[in-house]
Amino acid sequence: MDIILDENNIELKVRAKDWREAVKKSGAILARNGYVEERYINAMVETVKELGPYIVVAPGLALPHAKRSDGVIKSGISIITLDEPIEFGNSANDPVYVLIGLSGSNDQAHLQILQAIASVFEDEKLVYKIAESNCKKEIVAIFNGIEVRDDA
Amino acid sequence: MMLKVVAICGCGMGSSVILRLNAEKAFKALGVEAKVEVSDITTGKGAAKEADLVIIGTELAYLIQGVDKPVIQLKNFVNKNEINEKLEAYCKSQNLI
């Protein structure tokens, strides 16, 4: 499969005062690297404000995103790890250590990205391993080393 | 009979797609024929009415209140055990397996 993540899309031990700032920082990487328009960043925050903290999909892991129509240019992800975990208000899965910003263009690349995320975090310990990592290369290797079946 | 399933999330592009991927694998393992589609909150309620089964995150379950269909709520979208156990229980309750 194509490479879904490179080091330019990762920031480690990021400081954020609350979930809004953390979500914005994950979106800012997507905007800086040409995956989304600037307006997408605020739409990511608005999605959580409107619908609640459902983007915290597993213990320690949030997948902030907005709709394609909110300014998606192409499918991709950003990863930030937090220097201090943050509460999103999701009783089952708080606090969040890792945010994966999603930009989805409803294409094969997007499907492969979500398959990779589902496969990586099937191992619940990996979110904490990623959170503690000081090495972007290690995180890239975790994601790009995942085998994704083309038939799924 | 092909089971019609809808996975719902806020935008229909993130967590619901992960739910669909994991649900498809779970149904395959159970030997149950199912067509799993994704939907967002604007179309979710309508799609739920057309489906045999709804899969949704616990935090969003309020969005489909009043929909008279079996609903599976999930806390953890990437934990295979949770979705496998809940889908298996559903299939047993419907005498599908």
Q: Spans of chain B with pLDDT under 50 lasting ≥5 residues?
A: none
Second rung of CATH, namely the architecture of chain A: 3-Layer(aba) Sandwich
Tell me the CATH topology of chain A: Mannitol-specific EII, Chain A
Low-confidence stretches of chain A: none
Main sheet properties of chain A: 5 strands, mixed
Based on secondary structure, the structural category of chain B is: alpha/beta
Number of strands of chain A: 5
Explain the layout of strands and helices:
The complex is a heterodimer of chains A (152) and B (97).
Chain A lengths: L9 E5 L4 H14 L6 H13 L4 E3 L2 E2 L13 E11 L9 E8 L4 H13 L5 H7 L3 H9 L8
Parallel strand pairs in A: 1-4, 3-5
Antiparallel strand pairs in A: 2-3, 4-5
Chain B lengths: L2 E6 L6 H16 L3 E6 L1 H10 L2 E5 L13 E4 L5 H14 L4
Parallel strand pairs in B: 1-2, 1-3, 3-4
3D architecture notes:
The complex is a heterodimer of chains A (152) and B (97). Chain A has helices at residues 19-32, 39-51, 108-120, 126-132, 136-144; strands at 10-14, 56-58, 61-62, 76-86, 96-103. Chain A has 152 residues and is of the alpha/beta class. In chain B, helix 1 packs across helix 3. Chain B has 3 helices and 4 strands, in the order E-H-E-H-E-E-H. In chain B, 41% of the residues lie in helices and 22% in strands. Chain B has 97 residues and is an alpha/beta fold. In chain B, strand 1, helix 1 and strand 2 form a beta-alpha-beta unit. A 4-stranded parallel sheet of chain B has the order 2-1-3-4. The A-B interface holds A 47, 50-59, 61, 63, 65-68, 90, 92-93, 102, 104, 106, 110-111, 114-115, 117-118, 121-122, 124, 152 and B 9-15, 17-18, 21-22, 24-25, 40-41, 57-60, 63, 75-80.
Summarize the model shown.
The complex is a heterodimer of chains A (152) and B (97). Chain A has 152 residues and is of the alpha/beta class.
Features:
heterodimer; A: alpha/beta; 19% strand; globular; B: 97 residues; Rossmann fold
